[in-house]
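pls design
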């Protein structure tokens, strides 16, 4: 793509920046479209703006090539853009049951295979989740699933074969194959597993220490969110001393967690993203399965389910050392949006569902208690009546003098 852009507008850094700005705009629009389907407008907007501010033009270290405008490797940003396009086409193909959209998604996936292997693997997980979830949507989707998968796979094979044919014209077959799959051969090399640079980037240089930091930051996140829920709970009655104490403890925990998060180093905050994303993915999967009979509802949840799977698998390369400021910054981009969706949509939705469930169960419990009280009163009245009758019979039975 860069070569074609240079051919049109000349070889310069400005040409690349303009192209990358266009790709960034398309990615932002695509992310907003996906999240807007599954969440509300506020959540989608905040998540999209966070991507623009944290990943679009950021410069957290001396060099400025860890962002979308001037990335250190363009296959990273192109991979994110292609994945967004794949998920959009796949979702609309499921909704409209149109094979042409599955072909478009497969074509984008074939181009994605020519970029970074980690992006391709994460997108593969999202596609598998999407096709698997389709089986729960109804008999019509299950009947069309095999044909849709076949169309997707055939279309995915076209771009690599075309590029191989193009390179084969200019070089031997071995070199052409290496040109098409060079990124995969590099990733599968055994020597890279012992490279100190990669071990440090993945957090494997200090496995226990990095895992402890991740759990610590995630615990702080849970305390913050849990305290915020306790403080903002709409049905939190304050009439008893115990509830007032609980409310004050929740406020203190919320304030302490907020101060602790603020005092954290900026580089340590993203460490909780793998566990947050895993929690969101599990929540989406459970909700999808529980509401699987409501086709309209689960179809709306499908983009978030696929995006969560993509975000979690994409972080696999740096689960123990998640960051947004250096090499691999793009790996944390989807997970960052998932964290925002979790706080703005998933948790409030779950809390609201719990509140509605409590309100529905309270009348039932009250009716049960009333029935039990009524039965108890009837039993008590019956017992009193039997006692009165026994007393009367005991009173009338006797000698003539006692009558």
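designed seq:
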């Amino acid at each position: 793509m860069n070569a074609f852009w240079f051919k049109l507008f000349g070889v310069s850094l400005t040409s690349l920046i303009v192209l990358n700005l266009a790709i960034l705009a398309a990615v932002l629009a695509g992310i907003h479209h996906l999240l807007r389907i599954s969440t509300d407008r506020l959540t989608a907007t905040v998540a999209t703006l966070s991507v623009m501010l944290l990943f679009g033009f950021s410069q957290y270290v001396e060099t400025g090539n860890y962002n979308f405008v001037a990335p250190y490797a363009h296959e990273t940003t192109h991979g994110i853009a292609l994945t967004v396009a794949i998920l959009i086409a796949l979702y609309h193909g499921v909704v409209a049951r149109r094979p042409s959209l599955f072909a478009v998604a497969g074509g984008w996936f074939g181009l994605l295979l020519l970029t970074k292997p980690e992006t391709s693997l994460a997108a593969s997980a999202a596609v598998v989740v999407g096709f698997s979830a389709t089986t729960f949507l109804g008999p019509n989707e299950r009947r069309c699933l095999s044909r849709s998968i076949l169309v997707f796979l055939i279309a995915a094979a076209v771009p690599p074969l075309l590029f191989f044919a193009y390179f084969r014209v200019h070089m031997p077959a071995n070199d052409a194959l290496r040109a098409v799959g060079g990124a995969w051969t590099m990733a599968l090399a055994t020597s890279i597993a012992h490279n100190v640079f990669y071990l440090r980037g993945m957090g494997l240089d200090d496995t226990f220490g990095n895992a402890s930091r991740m759990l610590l930051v995630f615990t702080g996140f849970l305390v913050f969110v849990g305290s915020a829920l306790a403080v903002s709970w709409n049905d939190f009655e304050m009439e008893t001393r115990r509830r007032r104490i609980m409310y004050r403890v929740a406020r203190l925990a919320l304030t302490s967690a907020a101060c602790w998060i603020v005092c954290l180093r900026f580089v340590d905050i993203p460490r909780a993203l793998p566990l947050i994303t895993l929690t969101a993915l599990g929540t989406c999967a459970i909700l999808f399965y529980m509401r699987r009979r409501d086709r309209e509802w689960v179809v709306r949840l499908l983009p978030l389910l696929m995006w969560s799977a993509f975000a979690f698998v994409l972080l696999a390369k740096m689960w123990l050392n998640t960051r947004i400021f250096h090499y691999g910054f793009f790996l944390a981009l989807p997970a960052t949006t998932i964290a925002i969706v979790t706080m703005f949509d998933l948790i409030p939705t779950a809390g609201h569902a719990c509140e509605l469930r409590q309100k529905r169960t309270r009348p039932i419990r009250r009716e049960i208690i009333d029935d039990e009280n009524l039965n108890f009163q009837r039993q008590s009245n019956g017992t009193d009546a039997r006692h009165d009758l026994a007393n009367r019979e005991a009173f009338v039975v006797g000698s003539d003098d006692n009558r």
